């Protein structure tokens, strides 16, 4: 009697800096692991309590094997050392070294501009292929050993940072294995690219060379896929970011005396603008349209001197606050307890594909989303309309009217209603995106 043939084990080796590739990689890989994929992730050292800080899905760390490489330092460590020696930053500073350099400088002043130029120049020269280049050697060795123990495995690399793709390129070329290159963010075409023009030419050349052996290229949005397809002259698949459903907390107002508006994540002053929401609040105050003290905006994320300057210019320090960074699990709870979630869309209408992770978390939070930006068109605006999860605005007076109406509704009903359609919102979960990723991997 012939023994039944066991199904081929689906093995996947992932090269990812999980500190920066979360929540995309954990969100996509956890469903695959639950379906029987044998997944090994090679990552730089993770912080203590990383499942909470990075927002891993439940049981992710148990379902996937996570191999942490040896510690290393990034290219900014020499600058940090000098700053510590000169006592330019406190040992336990929470806002980081760049913020410490700019602490007494106006956001748009000459000092801030000079510091930005110096850091950009330093990175252009010394951070090739990126600031984490110290990880490449050890990660390559670990990946080689992991592949030896997992014959027939597929290889997946993800950015940020490009160093992950460099490691994957070395492994793919040495062993002729199937390699899928994932772009959470573009490399040389990054919308937040801040290095010198000549360095961008170098990165463009390097990117095209590194990606040649890749079996498939995927990205996180349609806009990114179009740009990558034009650069690499080959099809690029889109596997969206998503959200892994959090434990829903019953909407309970954080501050019963104020309309609580929250923004979570980093603000990119060159590309996003806090002016519309701040101008709307200033309009309410200056034109006596309502009681401005009944509103409060909280920013949770890295400190921004540009945001602080914009708030001070409008004399809104008593209602707009920067609360600093907190763990992802705490962020999810804060989102669900907000009255309104603020989304700052990209102001440059020529840039497409900018799809912030926070937007997808906002969809899961079950709270109304107020999106500002130059345009009412685009993927995000379309999704807000389709799901009923929020409203896009591009006029200050419309934002002011929305805020006043929200206050009136809370004053009369005790809470702000929400019209999001659960069935449509579920289409943007990581569970749904993981199905598309598995189909792509199974075809290889």
Provide a descriptive summary of the structure in words.
Strand 6 (216-219), helix 11 (222-232) and strand 7 form a beta-alpha-beta unit. With 444 residues, the chain is of the alpha/beta class. Strands 3-2-1-4-5-6-7 form a seven-stranded parallel sheet, with helices on both faces. A six-stranded parallel sheet has the order 10-9-8-11-12-13, with helices on both faces. It is globular, with a radius of gyration of 23 Å. It has 19 helices and 13 strands. Helix 2 (24-34) packs across helix 19, helix 8 crosses helix 9 and helix 14 (328-336) crosses helix 15. It has three domains: 11-72 and 132-244 and 430-442, Rossmann fold, CATH 3.40.50; 77-126, no CATH class; 259-428, 3-Layer(aba) Sandwich (Rossmann fold).
Question: What key attributes describe this structure?
Answer:
Rossmann fold; 19 helices; alpha/beta; six-stranded parallel sheet; seven-stranded parallel sheet; disordered N terminus
Q: Identify low-pLDDT runs.
A: 1-7
Number of helices: 19
Give the % helix. Answer: 40-55%
Give the total of beta strands.
13
Nearest-angstrom radius of gyration? Answer: 23 Å
By CATH's scheme, which homologous superfamily of the largest domain applies?
A: Glycogen Phosphorylase B
CATH fold node name of the largest domain = Rossmann fold
What can be said about this structure in brief?
This protein has 444 residues and is α/β, with parallel strands linked by helices. 43% of the residues lie in helices and 14% in strands.
